[in-house]
Amino acid sequence: MSIKQFLILGFSLLLSLAIFLNIQYSKSTEFQKNNKPIENYSIVNLRHSYSSKMSSHIDINYNGKVYNVEVNKSKEFYADVEKGIIKPKFYYVKDKDKVFFENQFVPFPFVYLTYIAAFILPIIGFIVYRKELNNKYSTM
Predict the structure, then answer these.
(1) Helix, strand, coil abundance in the chain, percent, nearest 5
(2) SS3 call for 66
(3) Could you give the 3-state DSSP secondary structure of residue 2?
(4) Cα(140)–Cα(133) distance, rounded to whole angstroms?
(5) Mean pLDDT over all residues of the chain?
(6) Tell me: the pLDDT tens digits for 21-57?
(7) Cα 96 to Cα 38: distance, rounded to the nearest angstrom
(8) What is the pTM of this model?
(9) What is the mean predicted confidence (pLDDT) over 85-93?
(10) What is the DSSP string of 72-129?
(11) Which residue, among 87, 1, 94, has the nearest Cα to 43 in the 3D structure?
(12) Cβ 67 vs Cβ 14: under 8 Å
């Protein structure tokens, strides 16, 4: 396989992933528009990492089952939840038996980043290897 074919294949795969994530994001926003958030849940545990928003979770009890839900919010949000000032909006997807926080079934930055990678990485590859595009990709 030549470098040119390898870069085109990489572009195709990343673009396919971006389109898939975009469809998932669209489905989740439609789901939120058409369904009400769950009301009868209780918060079991809050685990907030102050160093990273990506590792923050809330364990909730819903219909007799405990769900671990990822929540990317600030430390003030968690303080308000602990005090009972804010009641977070969670949605339950019956088909997948999954609970997700509002707007976080597929976070939209992942969709953007995948589109960016799909276009930028092959362009950089074509620029860097412009004189060697017909060589084998193993010589990269």
Answers:
(1) 50, 20, 30
(2) strand
(3) strand
(4) 10
(5) 83
(6) 999 888 888 888 898 988 888 888 877 666 555 567 7
(7) 15
(8) 0.69
(9) 85
(10) ---HHHHHHHHHTS----EEEETTTTEEEETT-SS-HHHHHHHHHHHHHHHHHHHHHT
(11) 87
(12) no
The pLDDT value given to residue 109:
78
Beta strands 90-93 and 65-70: pairing type? unpaired
Q: Which two tokens stand for residue 85?
A: 């000032």
Largest interatomic CA distance in the chain: 63
Distance CA 118, CA 123 (A): 9
User: In 10 A of CB 85, how many CB atoms?
Assistant: 9
User: Could you tell me the two tokens for 20?
Assistant: 């898939």
Residues 38, 42, 109: CA angle, nearest 5 degrees: 60
- Return the number of other C-beta atoms located less than 10 Å from residue 68's C-beta: 12
